[in-house]
Amino acid sequence: MSQEVRRTMPILPISIVMELTSLTARQIRHYEDQQLITPARTSGNKRMFSLNDVDRLLEIKEYLEQGINLAGIRKIFDMQVQPPLAAPEMKQMTDEELRDFLRIEMMNSQSRRSSVRQGDLSRFYH
């Protein structure tokens, strides 16, 4: 059995999770209501937690101690689940296009203050 499978198995009752996390049952149920955790349920409807759930609760507790509210924590967790947006593909500039761009920037900098120092640009011209 792999470690990931063991970490996701719902084996811990809420009483043990309370001891491991120093959270109250009410807090744990509230985080479940806020959909920050989703413990498994037995046929008798008892919550059973995995080691990953315990880790998540400890993360929630840490974020709250840092002053982040539940909405902020939810955003953090959502960002962890979703793959980052792909950066738009940047067009590769040829040396000639780069020189033209820098030449235009340098000419514009004479009439207005440029974000790029003229001395830095001059080294690109032959």
UniProtKB/TrEMBL annotation:
Is Transcription regulation there in the keyword field?
Answer: yes
Q: Which SUPFAM superfamilies match?
A: Putative DNA-binding domain (SSF46955)
Question: Which segments constitute the HTH merR-type domain?
Answer: 11-79
The alphabetized UniProt keywords are:
DNA-binding, Repressor, Transcription, Transcription regulation
Known InterPro entries for this protein? DNA-bd_dom_put_sf, MerR-type_HTH_dom, MerR_fam
Matching entries from Gene3D superfamilies are given as: 1.10.1660.10
Give one GO term, molecular function aspect: DNA-binding transcription factor activity
Keyword Zinc (UniProt): no
Q: Name one Pfam family in it.
A: MerR_1
Name of the featured protein: MerR family transcriptional regulator
- The species this protein belongs to is Planococcus lenghuensis
Q: What is the lineage of its organism?
A: Bacteria, Bacillati, Bacillota, Bacilli, Bacillales
